[in-house]
Amino acid sequence: MKQKYRITLLPGDGIGPEIMAVAVAVMKVIATKFDLEFEFTEALVGGSAIDATGEPLPAETLKTCKESDAVLLAAIGGYKWDNLPRQQRPETGLLGLRAGLELFANLRPATIIPQLIEASPLKREIVEGVDLIVVRELTGGIYFGQPKGTFTDEQGSTRSFNTMVYSDWEVDRIAKVAFEIASKRNGKLCSVDKANVLDVSQLWRDRVTLMAKDYPNVELSHLYVDNAAMQLVRSPRQFDTIVTGNLFGDILSDLAAVLTGSIGMLPSASLGLKNPGLFEPVHGSAPDIAGMDKANPLAQVLSAAMMLRYGLNQPEAAGEIERAVNHILESGYRTGDIMSPGMTLVGCQQMGELLIKTLTS
Ligand code: NAD
């Protein structure tokens, strides 16, 4: 019997619907090829949800997401909604979605695609062969720690503070995700902290070290975050899987993304324990090119591949999509954002057609 999956599609705003259409077309071909069945349900989030219902994350959308096996999101936001109060902003919908699905692990791969190596701001010999993933804790640490606030002290100075706090179980659950991923990749995990200064980082390091006993096939190392930032720029090939807390992960995942040089190519995944995962490109809704057939759909398509690998446990199907993307780039086709001399410029739709042709030939 065919393996059946319910997938919620959230096309969102701007270029979202265009790039989502390409990803869905690709998924339909994959379903036929791998004898899978995808039941797609579309729901509203972000600006389009505000226009239709007055809220960026309607309760119906969250319910639909929770009832599915995975959620594929494109992007949200745009000029039209930029001046609304915070509670009605598209971004509030995205944060609500992450919180509502209790997604505590954010996965951001940074892979140098050989055909796009010139797009990297770093020298070829430094970035050639880079293939790493940053696993960031997403719901704890200093962004959510209590107490926090602003007050006036006895001398009349205004003081503000936040609390960086992790519980042992929070470190354990993100470390487990990272060890599992590392064991399916190259078996190397680097945990990043600031244990030379921060008590909370010492707990982080102790718990990660303890968990290493359960994964004898994974080689664990530790780096302080300042050194990790330096190493990512100086010698990024040494990394395979990186695990770190919310604040350090926010910064390091963007740093790692820049190594690849092309935002239209980067997928991401956010995972929880009991709810479906959320898979989305790293880029935004690109309102400047929306509706012009100029968007690069590959980050969206690669997000669908991540959904197959990490959300639905279908690594062969994911690999098939990734190979098709590489083949198209190898053949010299480029959207405007990754265009270089001598290549063939295509639009979003044509890029999709080329992918389908590759997958069906
Ligand atoms: P952006 O990523 O949307 O765009 C930055 C630049 O990259 C633009 O020039 C855009 O045209 C280009 N670009 C982005 N994705 C592209 C693609 N797939 N193909 C070709 N070119 C692409 O970031 P921004 O301009 O800072 O934000 C625009 C809107 O997106 C804002 O409303 C912002 O809040 C929102 N946003 C949403 C998300 C999300 O949904 N996760 C993330 C970031 C920004």
Class derived from helix and strand content: alpha/beta
What small molecules does the structure contain?
Answer: nicotinamide-adenine-dinucleotide
> How far is the N terminus from the C terminus?
25 Å
Helix content: 40-55%
C-alpha Rg (nearest Å):
21 Å
Task: List how many beta strands DSSP finds.
Answer: 14
The CATH topology label of the largest domain is Isopropylmalate Dehydrogenase
Order of helices and strands: EHEHHEHEHEEEHEHEHEHEEHHEEH
Biggest sheet details: 10 strands, mixed
- The assigned CATH architecture of the largest domain is 3-Layer(aba) Sandwich
Short note summarizing the structure:
This protein is an alpha/beta fold and 361 residues long. It has twelve helices and 14 strands. The chain has a ten-stranded mixed β-sheet, with helices on both faces. Strands 6-7 form a two-stranded antiparallel ribbon. It has a two-stranded parallel sheet with strand order 13-14.
Description:
41% of the residues lie in helices and 21% in strands. It has 12 helices and 14 strands. Strands 2-1-3-12-11-4-5-10-8-9 form a 10-stranded mixed β-sheet, with helices on both faces. Strands 6-7 form a two-stranded antiparallel ribbon. The protein has a two-stranded parallel ribbon with strand order 13-14. Helix 1 links the parallel strand 1 (3-12) and strand 2. Bound molecules: nicotinamide-adenine-dinucleotide. Residues 15, 75-78, 91, 94, 263-264, 280, 283-289, 295-296, 299, 337 line the site of nicotinamide-adenine-dinucleotide.
